[in-house]
Design goal:
Blueprint lengths: L26 H31 L13 H26 L3 H28 L7 H33 L9 H26 L1
Helix pairs in contact: 1-4, 1-5, 2-3, 2-5, 3-4, 4-5
Length: 203
């Protein structure tokens, strides 16, 4: 029996028409940008709490005595994370040229740099000499840096998945969103650390 025609001109058994896209940006990227915007607002609330604690203390020096922060170690972590932004960019540009070896190397280096950052951050926590229970400074410091550390962990998970898929040959010059999306997220994590480092360790 022939397919039955419907009032909208589509015959029974045909696939539904493709969804109309109102933007040239792929919907997946739009979703990622909106997600990052919501994450930026989350960080904004933590920054607001940190500055409120700082103003309420009213100390002439920051951090207030007797707290001390390992500024050099934080600077080293900053250099590591900024470097990882270049390696993830290298990975994405490599796959856009169908350079699979460059993709794998870029993802691997980015993962190792991110892991080094997280391990240094954990070591810093063990040597600080204060805890989240020590006044407003302690709670806001751990809250802000811990929130960022959590985002680094999520980013490492995404990078690990992308690395495994890259080794298995899942990406190409035409199909590389699985690298682009973790890359966007990783750049966001890097930028937020620069803000955290400047706010907490420098200013």
């Amino acid at each position: 029996m022939s397919a039955i025609a419907h009032g909208d001109g589509q015959r029974h058994g045909d696939h539904p028409p493709a969804a109309h896209a109102s933007s040239r940006v792929p919907p997946v990227l739009v979703g990622m940008y909106l997600f990052i915007a919501s994450e930026a607002m989350l960080f904004g609330s933590f920054f607001a709490a940190y500055f409120f604690a700082r103003v309420s203390v009213g100390a002439e020096t920051w951090p207030p005595e007797p707290f001390e922060l390992p500024v050099f170690l934080a600077l080293l972590n900053t250099i590591i994370l900024v470097t990882s932004s270049f390696t993830i960019h290298w990975a994405l540009q490599s796959i856009k040229r169908d350079d699979r070896a460059g993709l794998i190397a870029g993802l691997g280096l980015t993962f190792l740099l991110g892991l080094a950052f997280l391990l240094i951050q954990a070591r810093e926590y063990t040597r600080l000499g204060f805890s989240p229970r020590d006044l407003g400074f302690g709670s806001t410091f751990y809250g802000l840096t811990g929130l960022h550390g959590l985002h680094v962990f999520v980013g490492l998970t995404l990078l690990a998945i992308a690395f495994v898929r890259a080794v298995r040959g899942h990406y190409s010059a035409r199909n590389h969103q699985g690298v682009e999306l973790p890359g966007i997220y990783w750049h966001f994590v890097d930028v937020m650390w620069i803000v955290v480092y400047t706010t907490v360790y420098v200013i």
